[in-house]
Structures are given as C-alpha cells and as structure tokens.
Amino acid sequence: MSGVGMERTQEIADRVERFVREVVIPFERDPRRDHHDCPKDELVTELRELARAAGVLTPHILADGSHLSQSETAIVLAKTGLSPLGPLACNTAAPDEGNMYLLGKIGSPEIKERFLKPLVEGSARSAFFMTEPAEEGGAGSDPSMMTTTCRPDGNQWVVNGRKAFITGARGAKVGIVMAKAEEGACMFLVDLPDPAITIDHVPNTIDSSMPGGHAVVTIRNLRIPADQMLGQPGEGFKYAQIRLSPARLSHCMRWRGACIRANEIATGYSNRRKAFGKTLIDHEGVGFMLADNLIDLKQAELMISWCASVLDAGSLGTNESSMAKVAVSEALMRVADRCVQVMGGSGVTNETIVEQVFREVRAFRIYDGPTEVHKWSLAKKIKRDWQKANP
C-alpha cells in the first residue's frame, strides 16, 4: 500500500472508530429488536442516517465509486466491527457488503444503477439466495446439490425452489437468486419483496446481529427478465466464487474488530475485579489467557493482511480464503471464549457485548463454509499437488 493510500485509509479508519465508539456503542441497549433479538430496520435506518451525517456510511467505497483495496478494507472493516451494530450503521455488514462487491465487479451499468446504487447509498438491504433446506437434499456446503431450478420462457426465466438460512430476506429490497438450468448454475437479480418469494419461517439462531434473521423461503414461479441474469446461463458458480472468497475475508475483518472490543472489556474487568487478595490480572491463569488473546488477535490480523494482499494482487483462490477463514474463525473463537471465562458469571450475561460476540463468532465458524469443509478442500489440494509431483 502506498504512503498516500495508507494515510487516506488510516484517516477513514480513525473516523469510523470514533463514530462507532462514540455514537454506535450507546445504541447497543436500544430496545428496537425483533423477537429473534435482531435489530429492527427502524434502528438500522437511524444508525445509517447518523453515519451519513458523520461521513462514514459505506466507507470502503469512495465517492467516485471506486473500492478500497482489500488491504485497506481490512483496516476499515475492523473498526466497524468494534460494535455488533457497527457494520449495520456503516453499511459494511453481510450480506450487503459481499453483494456490493460482486455487483461492483461484474454488474452492467444498468445493473449498477438499479441494484447497486441503493445498496451503496444505504437505502436498501439485500439477500443472497443460495443455501437450501438440508431435509430436502438441497445445496449447503456442496453447491452442486442445488435443487432450485430455472427455465427460460420467452424473454424471462421462471424460478422454482426452496432456500434456507437466507440472511436478511425479511425486509430486503434487492435479492441475488441462485438456480440451476440445463446449462448449469445461474445467478439473477430481483426486486424484493416479490409475491413469488414467500418467507415460510425465520428460526431462532445463536447469532442476533443481522436484521431479518436467517429465513427459510419458498420460490414459486418467480419470473425474472432475462437481462437481470448476471452473465450467461451456467456461469452462476463462477460469479458465486467472485463473491464468496472476499466475503469470507470480510467476515474475518469485522469479527476481529468485535473480538478486539470483547478483549478490551475482559481486560478492564480483570484489572478491576479482585479475588484472593489481588486483581484477576495478577493471577497467572487469567493473565495468561489475556496474553493468549493478544497472540491470537495478532495472528488473525496477519492472516487477514496476507490474504488481502493476495486478493489485491489478483491471485486469490479458494485455497487462500479457506485458510484465512479457518485460521481466523478458530482464533477468534478462542479469544471470545477466553473473554467469557475471564469474566466468569459476568461474561455470560448481556450486561456487556462479550456474550453476544461469543455467540456471533461461534456462528461464524459455520457460515460461509464450516471449518471442516474448508479443511477438506485444502486436503484435496494437498492430494492433487502430491499426485502431480509424483505421477
């Protein structure tokens, strides 16, 4: 990163951090939550207006429409993650951030004006419809199992199927729908809500940071104009990879910020709380846990930085993003767990965000591919490389 780029990025990051710490954090106890404890859109809208006024709305996309590099984005997104509400306020949250990245990379001028612009402006939320119900044999970690179908009908495509764990579907205005045609996977953009897409159920989940929860939906005879397909029939998985590799890394960036904050809270607690004649920090068992947290946070930072630099060089593949997803999610899980442990009973209450960070990071180990799937993918590469070297 050039000196000018770093100076600009640091200035953005500093503004974001001040905004999150001074403005967003006081909203963490705001009662505007649904029965799943997810923030309501009313709260998100207010926070985004405050971010707009502070000049930190969608800070990773500049006024001219250009995107910060991934190395620069890593610094900024970590600052938005200092509160679970920070990414929502600053418009860097999933799935919107990943969807904006995808549309910015491959969208036509018409697509960008109609679908990307309201996302960047923070006036709309989006949803990515790919995962399907396991009990129906649909696609999860294995996208080749996709059962949602699409077929051409004149200048339209007709989509039918079921989707599951669709983050933010309730309340979204923009949808990206994956379906299977004879040629292979296809990706479509749709306006939401649409009467052909019904929300069947929004289960209670361990995490609660994303508006709308993670819905199960049914798609019945959804008609989509042909010009709202991204690319050509059969190119859906290619475009999904353009989105998913950096999206995994963005999760790492945001949740690293959350764990930095959780560690700050645990550190403050350990320096104030006394037991057996001295503060907790002076007990090796506690002090060593906090030392391990610093090590894991630094390792996570370095892994994110490495993966971001590879992506900036244009050579990021699924192997690099898989390594980052595994290493960072597992490291942050250890950090969040230690923070709870250091704080004892206080760590499992909602008096601080520590217990929420623990829940959110536990879910992070699963979404965008569980640890075991990424390790399996890496193991297959190890085998292929060995066989190539030893014919």
From TrEMBL:
It comes from the Bacteria. GO terms for molecular function: acyl-CoA dehydrogenase activity; flavin adenine dinucleotide binding. Its cofactor is FAD. Keywords: FAD, Flavoprotein, Oxidoreductase. Residues 234-381 form the Acyl-CoA dehydrogenase/oxidase C-terminal domain. Residues 128-202 form the Acyl-CoA oxidase/dehydrogenase middle domain. The keyword Oxidoreductase applies. Homodimer. Belongs to the acyl-CoA dehydrogenase family. This is Acyl-CoA dehydrogenase. It comes from Bradyrhizobium neotropicale. The lineage of its organism: Bacteria, Pseudomonadati, Pseudomonadota, Alphaproteobacteria, Hyphomicrobiales.
